[in-house]
Amino acid sequence: MNSLSGRFLILTTVFVMLAEVLIFVPSIARFREDFLLNRLERAQIASLALLADDMLAEDLEAELLANAGVYNVVLRRDEVRQLMLSSPIPDPIADTFDLRDASPWILIRDAISRFLKPENEVIRVIGEPVKGAGLLIEVTMDSIPLRTAMIDYGLRILGLSFVISIITAFFLFLAVRVVLVRPIKSVVGYMQRYASAPEDARGIISPNSKVTELREAEEALKMLQTDLTQALKQRERLAQLGGAVAKVSHDLRNILTSAQLFTDRIEASDDPLVRRMAPKLVNSITRAVSLCESTLAFGRAEEPAPTLTMVPIRAIAADVAASEQLSVADACVEIVNEVPDTLVARADPEQLYRVIMNLVRNARQALVASGKPGRVTIAGCENDDAWCIEIRDTGPGLPPKARENLFTPFQGGVRKGGSGLGLAISQELVRGHGGDLVLKETGPEGTVFEISLPRGDMTF
């Protein structure tokens, strides 16, 4: 019964039975009232025999009372209360019920009370004679026949309710299968066919449901499948293009590397013009080689998952500062390590080194390009949620165009000849740690990038 239609079957049966239970008590109260009124009518008919013949034999009187199911009958006519028929009462009268002005709540209360009293009692019942045959009629009777009849009626009501609930649930089961389950299975079938072959346009659903909600779901699925198919085709084209670019970049890098070796001999030329142009040629070739290497690095399928260990951030920052300080062509750029000795973060040391190296190198190159003295500072701190590493510089700041596509490959380059892959790769590596790399601020006073690594669960 884990299917949708099966659960509808069970729920319908339960709710129909619940509805029948809710109307069971009023029904029993109504049955009790009809039962007592019937006894009053039968008693009235028996009393009419006495009015027709003032003298009745005791045997006939007892038979009349037995047929009426009462012990005695009192009829009030013309303001005169008369004991019409009577027989010995075995027990004192336990309760009196007046049906003339009884409200529905009183009838329900009395019915429940009778259900809860299994022992026999002698009760008095008062009502109005039918056909205006008097002012009132009063009888005394046993309560057991009343309770037995109520139980029998209740069982029949419950049995009938159960049959009705089963029949109703069965038809609802069929309706749900036709109206809901079958269309839903059709949608699921389209989804499965599309998942097995998303490039096959025949797997895209064709909305045809007449149910508004299902029609909307089918249309939404069709739009999703159409967009996804187009995205997959575009991704396939980009993958093919990326493979071609990677091959070209690989071969071009080899060619440029060979050209780079020849520049060493060109610099030794006696021709002043050649010697003056050689550094520019070297710089151009170096930038081209760097672009090819960055393209090849970004074109790899994915970076390996980080191997997380607790690493001292200051030591990594010191390695980066030492490496970059050797590369600084102009001593006017200073690299400062302000990371506290106690700062230890959970990260992959190699990947974190690459991220900090990329950010420091970008800052250094921006300062060298500006031609003004400057400083690149590596700082760090921690809070309850994360470890934070900042790379600050005193450079000229990022231009607006660079800010718009800062982490977009091949578009976020700041310096002339840059590919913009360094920041994209760095952000990907940081997000692999569950953290983020953001541009915190930039302007004429300098630029600040922040690396945040979440603390999370400290248990290894």
From TrEMBL:
Molecular function in Gene Ontology: kinase activity
EC number: 2.7.13.3
UniProt keyword Membrane, yes or no: yes
Reactions catalysed: ATP + protein L-histidine = ADP + protein N-phospho-L-histidine
EC primary class: transferase
Alphabetic keyword roster: ATP-binding, Coiled coil, Kinase, Membrane, Nucleotide-binding, Phosphoprotein, Transferase, Transmembrane, Transmembrane helix, Two-component regulatory system
Transmembrane segments: 6-29, 157-180
Coiled coil feature spans: 214-241
Pfam families per record: HATPase_c, HisKA
Keyword Kinase attached: yes
Domain of life of the source: Bacteria
Domain Histidine kinase: 247-457
PANTHER family: PEROXIDE STRESS-ACTIVATED HISTIDINE KINASE MAK3 (PTHR43065:SF10), SENSOR HISTIDINE KINASE (PTHR43065)
Full protein name: histidine kinase
